[in-house]
Amino acid sequence: MSVTGLERLLTVDEYCAWRGISKGTAANERYMGNGPKFIKAGKSVRYAESDLKNWIEENTKDRT
Which pLDDT value is given to residue 1? Predict the structure, then answer.
């Protein structure tokens, strides 16, 4: 089986460091559904790079 085409999945720690937020804030985003899409495998949560890029694009504003 080839791993070509698989994208990187960020851990919660990596995602929080990238955003500059706490794990609690990330957990609240997941609970409220207002953060980026995430993957849950057992107890592990991961964020696909493509989902983060899409979330950024969807939340980019021209005005307040």
Answer: 45
